[in-house]
Amino acid sequence: MARRKKIYEGKAKIMYEGPEPGTLVQYFKDDATAFNAEKRATIEGKGVLNNRLSEYFMTGLTQVGIPNHFIKRINMREQLIRSVEIIPLEVIVRNFAAGSLSTRLGMAEGTPLPRPIVEFCYKDDALGDPLVSEEHVIAFGWASQQDLDDMIALALRVNDFLSGVMMAVGIKLVDFKIEIGRVWENDYHRLIVADEISPDSCRLWDMQTGQKLDKDVFRRDLGNLADAYTEVARRLGVLPTNVTHAPKPTLIN
Ligand code: TMP
Known about the structure:
7-stranded antiparallel β-sheet, single chain, D-amino Acid Aminotransferase, Chain A, domain 1, alpha+beta, binds thymidine-5'-phosphate, 5-stranded antiparallel β-sheet
């Protein structure tokens, strides 16, 4: 197939022009970054796994009526998505304390939170995606009050869905990040889940052992990241047929 026009390259994905207006092709790279790209690596097979896992979660969202950008998977690393106007916020939902919340508030990782907590970070790599308040979001015009209310409702629905899906395979959804975009219909817009949902953007802990099965494995040097993502995919029954990092078969004489 002729190479498509590149629209944008991020840290973990590339966007290409889609085959029809209003569509894009989202390509999942094997690159992993952490701490605002201070730490980088190429993890063979990560893009293939995240393409499959994001397809799985987005398809599930569609099945329970939560609007999102996913149209269809094209191949091992690419999916067709609806093009949206991304709201420049990372929307984080937390069920248990971890990561930056634990650091900020001195709360032990794993402490249950009294209710799911929604946070917003302003998407700006140069600033390191700083945490912002709802006041900032409104005052700086990143989203309207209505958008904000809709984003919170959407994020909490995603949280309920994802928590249930993960619990069913023995994994605790500690927290996650989504991005949300606007799609325009005449003069009106509605908000849909965009970007990706994968272990790159969630904290996933084994219910029994507490073992981390997400990007913290890379951030904190806890082992092989592709193995952790493969375990998530295996439990969900979405293992790709030929994961590139799988060990080669050995001959038994
Ligand atoms: P945090 O505890 O580092 O703020 O992360 C909260 C959640 O957001 C966690 O599930 C990881 C995810 N996340 C991203 O997807 N992208 C990011 O750049 C960061 C910092 C966190």
